[in-house]
Description:
globular
Amino acid sequence: xxxxxxxxxxxxxxxxxxxxxxxxxxxxxxxxxxxxxxxxxxxxxxxxxxxxxxxxxxxxxxxxxxxxxxxxxxxxxxxxxxxxxxxxxxxxxxxxxxxxxxxxxxxxxxxxxxxxxxxxxxxxxxxxxxxxxxxxxxxxxxxxxxxxxxxxxxxxxxxxxxxxxxxxxxxxxxxxxxxxxxxxxxxxxxxxxxxxxxxxxxxxxxxxxxxxxxxxxxxxxxxxxxxxxxxxxxxxxxxxxxxxxxxxxxxxxxxxxxxxxxxxxxxxxxxxxxxxxxxxxxxxxxxxxxxxxxxxxxxxxxxxxxxxxxxxxxxxxxxxxxxxxxxxxxxxxxxxxxx
Length: 339
């Protein structure tokens, strides 16, 4: 078996984010039963239906705000030579928001919309009281997981908090972002999913309890529940139904991040299978797909992707992702040498 290079894992994470987002776009924010009734089974790129007021702005294989904001973070990391500068991240996100007219469309989550509106009025990030519990920080964080070494954990959490701060500062939102970024980071380092999965509840607990700001349920307990649901299921359909009904697949961090971890487990870490399962889950399908498939992409590398789907993603979204993967690999190596 040919060894997967670190740069190929990073490229896999970035394209995994894009694949899960684009495949999950048509069904986003619809109930599971409506997804089944309307689509049957999603296993290819589709246009956003006109009657879906979140997906209607997008065509087949286009990515949504999840990946647009992830690229805003990625560009800020490039500009700052691998350092996390919240003001650069916010500037890039606001630029995308303005270009897409996202304030006037059903695109932005409530926490991001409020925080970004305040910054447009001139309020500094340090002055924001953005204690929202939605998943806007976790959905865009995969590029940071590509750059940051997974240890020391305290530094890792602090950097994720900084990257989250333009839109989210709550304990649960940042902890969710830590879980996704840390899973990506460990996968980029070559860790197996079994090792990552076992560690995630403790990572979540540490991140959530560093500074309590909400009365949220335990992210660690919800991740354990999600993984337990998959372990006890008798098949993919039953597992997906139980994840949707018991864990939840909504826009809150406490639902969508554990659901994403469950989908990595259910797919066996395969990015192609993961993206399809997430697209058919119901709920916040594009965001859960973006988070879960980014992890899978880092686990298996870019060579594991379906070549036809990858070619279509590149055709519709003509971006040079190798400039990120090459630079991020260099940033990461430098950080490891300095630690």
